[in-house]
């Protein structure tokens, strides 16, 4: 078999996973063997037409020399000519590619599971349509259902987006749907694909089929794969995979993952991640439903600036040595965040890290009466070391207002818990909880622009921008986007606009897009990024006027919509100094916070 | 603010039901929990005393924190799953060493949870016990209704004798005299967080047993100290009961 020759240096695990795959191909894929053949031929014809987007990964790698198509398979060091067939030059690589094509029984089988699944899903796509997000949303209510799914079933194949994580040795680590054990052969195939392309000094990036995008990402010893029908751009899918990787890092740290696999290449990482599947499941559900991830920005709960300031002051006063972040969250949105002075100077909290924290809180809220103390790594901040997070709800039994305190000291639980008492007392004295309970997201009708249905606004011109958390604001999704299906449809439209705005080959500044049931306008300037959704009958002039009004409204409301001046505190051991400093900062904040 | 008088730690492999046990005891009901992250701290008011309970994560990922949770503990509840032999052996292999930081007077309980899966009697809620009466509302207590909970009993992998043997090994590991320590028969429990079987009995028994250390600590004027490590050292010099 070709692959054995080409994988000369590869570890034996790969070959064994190959073997297990071949059996899988016979058993699991036997029933749709015919559709596979169809599929492969379809890929061939398409690629003969030179439509690069339809290249299949394997054949793509082989055809690149002749085709010079955009990099579905990205080369690393070697040129195209050398890459496909090793270091033997062009003629060799041609014959190699020919052998790949001539031997679909062998090499084809490597793509069998991925592509055959793709094929089947394509066939089922008419039935499935847009109903799957709703079905998935419904399924979310049933815990552990995803794990028990039958991976040979049709419904498994029809999921909108699969995500797999495996180790370089091909060992399954995580699958969004179905159990990893049942999928070990499928993951073996994926790893084989990765290492096959790798053996030619290439990196497999994606496989495109009619309905599916398969995106590969390698991060250290982990390989992440997304199989999606969502029509999202490869870039977006890749950034989602990065979130998954970072969530794993947040639990284990990058250093320890590297160390583990250096020590033992075929280590079963599930041993360490067991029990964390729900956190990853929750993350992927959030990624699909929450635009924060798309925009890499944090969504704040709108709050009068006076209330936000007084909450910040409460947090500023409750400090203990080694405390670095105090974060107050309500309804899964940020209320306020206060950072240690020293920390803010050399780094800042990345929105991505905050998303991971929010997801962790959401996923661990089952037993809310207690005070949680857990190590957590913030990968964008420092992927190699842990913070210790104190998580406690301030309003049991409702559990909507959550306090998150991050310390660098493992032993600081009791000191940090004491900070919570202080915060609790101060909030009680100011009756802050009931004020927070009244805070809620706003309706687009408050903007007072007819035809405007929804928008997402991400400012860049925030004061002190380089040190501040990137934020965005967005109203509630209201009718006609009140059902899960419709919401997902709008988000998909936004994702599409986003991918076109941020297209690496042809970035755009402004898109006016008349869709079937709505009209969208996306606009990026040096000061903001804006996505708007209008009723379908709006005219271009109308839309532009509306946006002018919207921008004016946001400017007027920005103190309520955003955290304008994130306060700081100093927990260095000099209480008098620190309180003075904190006070003066706060003074600055209030002075600048109210532009006249 | 209420200061904890004494510290109790629940240890054990993942999925043996540590959080459920505590939830059953504090909230009087059983519900699906999700895997604990790190450790969760609870303050339980028990009569005039405040007992802090650490519900720890069983996942290997959080192993490093174990000794921190155990520091100065007066009671450690080592939990296993009666239908899973491995969960018992994990106690000895992984969790016992974490208790090195516990208080020298620390008592150890071995608790086999999920007894409702293997023993018909665990379906019954003890009626004569006043503490258990609350369970009646949501728990079937007629033998007939056991079929609704689980018609087929699973094979019990861990015998009570295995738990007793582990307890004796723990005493030996700790260098404790068998006759100076609580009897194994008293310290090995089989519980069901699902039906509430033996759960109150477990916690109440343990709290009764740590009562002397609470009183001793209060007398020493340590009651206001949150730092249990510090009180440990005080005790060691004053009491000098161990080794």
UniProtKB/TrEMBL annotation, chain A:
Cellular component, GO annotation: Mon1-Ccz1 complex
Q: Which residues form a coiled coil?
A: none
GO BP field: protein targeting to vacuole; vesicle-mediated transport
InterPro entries, per database record: FUZ/MON1/HPS1_longin_1, FUZ/MON1/HPS1_longin_2, FUZ/MON1/HPS1_longin_3, Mon1
Q: Which residues form the FUZ/MON1/HPS1 first Longin domain?
A: 161-283
- Spans of biased composition, class Basic and acidic residues? 7-16
Compositionally biased tracts (Polar residues): 584-596
The organism's place on the tree of life at top rank: Eukaryota
What residue stretches are annotated with the FUZ/MON1/HPS1 second Longin domain?
A: 322-423
Query: Where would I find the FUZ/MON1/HPS1 third Longin domain in this sequence?
Result: 452-558
Q: Name one Pfam family in it.
A: Fuz_longin_3
Please give the residue ranges the record annotates as the region Disordered.
Answer: 1-20, 77-106, 124-154, 566-596
Which family is it part of? Belongs to the MON1/SAND family.
Q: What does this protein do?
A: Plays an important role in membrane trafficking through the secretory apparatus.
Recorded protein name is Vacuolar fusion protein MON1 homolog
User: Which gene is transcribed and translated to give this protein?
Assistant: mon1bb
Automatic annotation (TrEMBL), chain B:
Q: Which InterPro entries match?
A: P-loop_NTPase, Rab20, Small_GTP-bd, Small_GTPase
Q: What class of enzyme is it?
A: hydrolase
Question: What gene is this protein translated from?
Answer: RAB20
Q: Where does the record say this protein resides?
A: Cytoplasmic vesicle membrane; Cytoplasmic vesicle, Phagosome membrane; Golgi apparatus
Family membership, please give it. Answer: Belongs to the small GTPase superfamily. Rab family.
Q: Which GO terms describe its cellular component?
A: Golgi apparatus; phagocytic vesicle membrane
**Cofactor(s) annotated in UniProt:** Mg(2+)
Question: What keywords sit in the KW lines?
Answer: Cytoplasmic vesicle, Golgi apparatus, GTP-binding, Hydrolase, Lipoprotein, Magnesium, Membrane, Metal-binding, Nucleotide-binding, Prenylation, Protein transport, Transport
Stated name of the protein: Ras-related protein Rab-20
Write out the GO biological process terms: protein transport
Q: What is any Pfam family matched here?
A: Ras
Q: Does the keyword Magnesium apply?
A: yes
Q: Name one GO molecular function term.
A: G protein activity
Question: How does the record classify its membrane topology?
Answer: Lipid-anchor
Q: Which reaction does it catalyse?
A: GTP + H2O = GDP + phosphate + H(+)
Q: What is its EC number?
A: 3.6.5.2
């Amino acid at each position: 078999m070709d692959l054995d020759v080409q994988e000369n240096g590869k570890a034996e695990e790969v070959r064994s996973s190959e073997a297990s795959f071949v059996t899988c191909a016979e058993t699991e894929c036997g029933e749709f063997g015919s559709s596979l053949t169809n599929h492969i031929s379809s890929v061939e014809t398409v690629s003969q037409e030179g439509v690069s987007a339809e290249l299949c990964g394997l054949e793509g790698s082989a055809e690149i020399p002749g085709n010079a198509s955009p990099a579905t398979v990205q080369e690393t060091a070697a040129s195209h000519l050398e890459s496909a067939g090793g270091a033997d030059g062009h003629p060799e690589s041609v014959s190699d590619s020919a052998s790949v094509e001539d031997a679909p029984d062998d090499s084809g089988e490597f793509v069998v599971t991925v592509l055959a699944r793709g094929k089947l899903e394509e066939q089922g796509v008419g039935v499935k349509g847009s109903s799957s997000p709703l079905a998935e949303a419904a399924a979310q209510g049933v815990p552990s259902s995803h794990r028990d799914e039958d991976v040979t079933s049709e419904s498994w194949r029809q999921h909108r987006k699969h995500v797999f994580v495996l180790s370089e040795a091909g060992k399954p680590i995580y699958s969004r749907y179905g159990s990893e054990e049942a999928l070990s052969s499928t993951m073996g195939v994926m790893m084989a694909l990765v290492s096959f392309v790798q053996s030619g000094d290439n990196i497999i990036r994606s496989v495109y089929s009619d309905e599916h995008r398969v995106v590969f990402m390698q991060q250290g010893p982990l390989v992440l794969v997304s199989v999606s029908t969502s029509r999202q751009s490869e870039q977006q899918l890749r950034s989602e995979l990065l979130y998954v990787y970072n969530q794993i890092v947040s639990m284990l740290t990058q250093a320890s993952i590297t160390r583990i696999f250096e020590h033992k290449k075929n280590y079963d990482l599930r041993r360490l991640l067991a029990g964390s599947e729900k956190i990853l499941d929750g993350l992927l559900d959030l990624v699909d439903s929450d635009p924060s991830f798309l925009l890499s920005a944090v969504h704040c709960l709108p709050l009068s600036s006076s209330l936000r300031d007084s909450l910040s002051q409460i947090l500023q006063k409750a400090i203990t040595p080694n405390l670095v972040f105090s974060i107050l969250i309500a309804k899964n949105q940020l209320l306020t965040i206060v950072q240690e002075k020293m920390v803010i100077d050399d780094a800042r909290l990345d929105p991505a890290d905050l998303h991971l924290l929010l997801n962790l809180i959401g996923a661990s809220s089952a037993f809310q009466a207690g005070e949680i103390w857990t190590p957590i790594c913030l990968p964008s901040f420092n992927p190699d070391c842990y913070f210790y997070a104190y998580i406690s709800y301030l309003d049991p039994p409702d559990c909507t207002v959550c306090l998150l305190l991050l310390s660098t000291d493992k032993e600081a639980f009791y000191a940090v818990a004491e900070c919570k008492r202080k915060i609790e007392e101060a909030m009680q004295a100011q009756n802050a909880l009931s004020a927070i309970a009244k805070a809620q997201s706003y309706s687009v009708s408050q903007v007072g622009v007819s035809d405007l249905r929804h928008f997402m606004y991400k400012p860049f011109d925030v004061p002190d921008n380089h040190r501040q958390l990137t934020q965005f604001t967005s109203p509630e999704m209201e009718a006609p986007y009140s059902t899960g299906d419709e919401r997902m449809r709008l988000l998909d439209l936004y994702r599409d606009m986003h991918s076109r705005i941020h297209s690496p080959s042809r970035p755009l500044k402004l898109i006016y897009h008349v869709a079937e049931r709505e009209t969208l306008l996306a606009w990026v300037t040096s000061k903001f990024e804006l996505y708007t959704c209008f009723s379908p009958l709006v005219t271009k002039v109308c839309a532009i006027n509306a946006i002018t009004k919207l921008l004016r409204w946001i400017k007027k409301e920005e103190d309520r919509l955003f955290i304008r001046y994130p306060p700081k505190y100093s927990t260095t051991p000099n209480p008098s100094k620190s309180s003075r400093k904190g006070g003066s900062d706060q003074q600055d904040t209030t002075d600048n916070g109210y532009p006249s | 603010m209420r200061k904890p008088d004494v510290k109790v730690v629940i240890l054990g492999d993942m999925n043996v039901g540590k959080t459920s046990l505590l939830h059953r005891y504090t909230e009087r009901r059983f519900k699906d929990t999700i895997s604990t992250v790190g450790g969760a701290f609870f303050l339980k008011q028990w009569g005039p005393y405040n007992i802090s309970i650490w519900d720890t994560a069983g996942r290997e990922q959080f192993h490093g924190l174990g000794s921190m949770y155990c520091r100065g503990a007066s009671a450690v509840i080592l939990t296993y799953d009666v239908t899973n032999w491995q969960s018992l052996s994990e106690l000895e292999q992984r969790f016992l060493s974490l208790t090195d930081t516990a208080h020298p007077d620390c008592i150890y309980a071995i608790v086999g949870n999920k007894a409702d899966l293997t023993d018909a009697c665990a379906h019954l809620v003890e009626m004569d016990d006043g503490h258990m009466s609350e369970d009646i509302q949501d728990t079937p207590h007629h033998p007939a209704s056991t079929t609704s909970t689980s018609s087929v009993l699973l094979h019990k992998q861990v015998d009570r004798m295995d738990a007793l043997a582990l307890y004796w090994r723990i005493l030996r590991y700790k260098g404790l005299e068998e006759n100076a320590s609580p009897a194994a028969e008293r310290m090995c429990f089989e519980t069901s967080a699902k039906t509430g079987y033996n759960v109150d009995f477990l916690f109440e028994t343990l709290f009764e047993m740590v009562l002397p250390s609470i009183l001793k600590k209060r007398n020493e004027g340590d009651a206001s100290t949150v730092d249990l490590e510090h009180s440990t050292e005080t005790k060691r010099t004053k009491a000098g009961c161990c080794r």
